[in-house]
Design a protein that fits this description.
There is one protein chain. This protein is α/β, with parallel strands linked by helices. The chain is about 35% helix and about 20% strand. It has 16 helices and 17 strands. Strand 15 and strand 16 (about 395-400) form a beta hairpin. The longest helix is centred in the middle third of the chain and has 26 residues, at about 220-245. The two termini are about 45 Å apart.
Length: about 500
């Protein structure tokens, strides 16, 4: 049972805190999920910001909560557990002592320190927490991505945090793992024999994982141009989704067992180095195009300077173990794409013997389509007889489970879930240090190969599905990126 805790939020005036973290904590309070006596302590750099903070976050909550979620009475109650304070992460001064005095009230409550800050200040924040006597045995620290820009910098960051917190106290967050649809993937696989017995190289033809964004730089030019899509999305979100799709069943659903199975997947990824990178990856960069009927600038126009940073990545990956031998995993992510969604597509092999004549049409491959956002759903695509015709005519049909329809009171808030898990000391949906190391070990050689002159990014128009080379990457295997238009849906990708 979750007991009262202190939640200290560094970077409390930042975009993530205002859009996701404070609204998530408000939802938890409104739903009765925060134990009585819990305190939320946002920290800000100056006293003026502290004085204005409650009004600022109230305005932000009204903007970022869903329609009809904001309730003035509930917010006023929530505001009573907000205790903003002045703390400058970069300077160990009397403000840190004031924070310590406010928290050292005699009880041994759990403490969650959420670093919604750039990684460059993680070390200073942890050091000052230690020197101020704020870290107890039941304290946890939550850190946001990116954890470095390569294996070396990731190791530096992790080592600096580990000077003050044990590994069991460090919660590396990937908000995709907090999505209910992502967690449901484990239930889908391991609680349903119909899928688990058809989840290997004998039954599956290929797996596609796509995270498609319609936004451009959105004020993140400085960070994004130094990172790019491979570091920003593939190294964390997409590889974590790949792990959940490909992992073996843990003998128990505990954090240690789940993490161990995910690590095995990462360590089994076939290395991509040198020339193999060129033939198994595509990097792209959007140019001017059209989004929703309006002209939008290209990446270089938004950035205002030359750059070879990729805004699109497609990768053909393989997992070298007995379950997935020779089965391609196609990974794709990009900005300024035609549509926003995150999706996992499991495509099954064709039937071994075709019994229907050619005049009946071609049977559509069976697919399991797991949509993670914006809506969360599970679709099974099957071949059926077209019931509107006298003769045998094959036609694809969709079995659709919309989670919002199945669970009327269902609303997924990944950050809320993960913040409560951190408070409850449940690390199942957080990333272990060894996973970070293994992910970078696979990503770094790709980054290195992309520095060669011949590996410059391909241009693609904003509002499209990425470079032509992306379709060619999959087409070279006699396959194509899944497009649900094939089965009569209004969606298209």
């Amino acid at each position: 049972m979750l007991e009262a805790f202190d939640f200290v939020l560094f970077g409390a005036a930042g975009d993530l805190a205002l859009r996701k973290l404070i609204p998530g904590l408000f939802r938890a309070h409104r739903n009765g999920e925060l134990p009585e006596g819990t305190r939320i302590i946002p920290t800000l750099r100056n006293a003026q910001a502290v004085a204005e903070y409650k009004d600022k976050v109230r305005d932000a909550a009204q903007k970022h909560l869903n329609k009809n979620e904001f309730n003035a009475v509930a917010w006023d109650s929530f505001a009573t557990i907000l205790f903003p304070m002045t703390v400058d992460i970069s300077t160990l001064d009397e403000r840190w002592a004031e924070l310590a005095n406010a928290m050292n009230g005699g009880d041994n409550r759990q403490r969650v320190f959420y670093l919604s800050t750039p990684p460059s200040v993680f070390s200073a924040a942890c050091k000052h927490l230690h020197e101020s006597g704020l870290i107890t045995k039941t304290s946890r620290v939550v850190v946001e991505k990116p954890l470095g820009y390569d294996a070396v910098t990731a190791e530096e960051i992790n080592s600096s945090i580990a000077e003050y917190f044990a590994e069991t106290q460090i919660f590396r967050i990937d908000h995709y793992l907090g999505k209910e649809a992502v967690q449901n993937l484990l239930a889908l696989r391991f609680a349903n024999g119909i899928f688990e017995h058809l989840w290997d190289a004998h039954a599956i033809d290929n797996v596609q994982i796509t995270i498609s964004e319609t936004v451009g730089l959105e004020g993140r030019a400085g960070f994004y141009d130094g990172a790019g899509a491979l570091r920003d999305m593939v190294q964390n979100h997409i590889l974590q989704l790949l792990c959940l799709v490909a992992m073996e069943s843990p003998n128990k659903m505990t954090a240690e067992r789940i993490r161990a199975e995910k690590l095995k997947v990462l360590e089994s990824l076939r290395p991509l180095t040198g020339n193999t990178v060129r033939f198994n990856t595509v990097r792209g960069q959007y140019v001017a195009g059209e989004m929703n009927g309006s002209a939008v600038p290209g990446y270089l126009d938004e950035l205002g300077s030359p750059s070879n940073t990729e805004t699109f990545v497609a990768i053909r990956a393989h997992i070298d173990n007995s379950r997935w031998a020779n089965i391609p995993f196609y990974l794709r992510t990009g900005k300024r794409m035609k549509e926003r969604f995150a999706e996992i597509v499991i495509q099954y092999k064709d039937v071994a013997h075709k019994v229907f004549p050619e005049s009946a049409g071609i049977a559509t491959p069976n697919r399991l389509v797991i949509r993670l956002q914006p809506e969360e759903s599970i679709k099974i695509i099957m071949t059926s007889k077209d019931l509107g015709k006298q003769e045998m005519q094959l036609s694809p049909v969709v079995l659709n489970l919309n989670l919002a329809d199945a669970y009327k009171d269902y609303f997924s808030d990944a950050y809320k879930r993960l913040m409560l898990d951190a408070a409850a000391n449940n690390p199942s949906l957080f990333i272990h240090r060894a996973e970070v190391d293994a992910a970078w070990a696979w990503i770094d050689p790709i980054i290195e190969a992309w520095q060669r002159p011949e590996n410059k990014p391909h241009g693609y128009m904003a509002g499209t599905w990425g470079p032509v080379a992306s379709a060619q990457l999959v087409g070279a295997d006699g396959r194509s990126w899944f497009n649900i238009d094939e089965v009569g849906s209004e969606e298209s990708h």
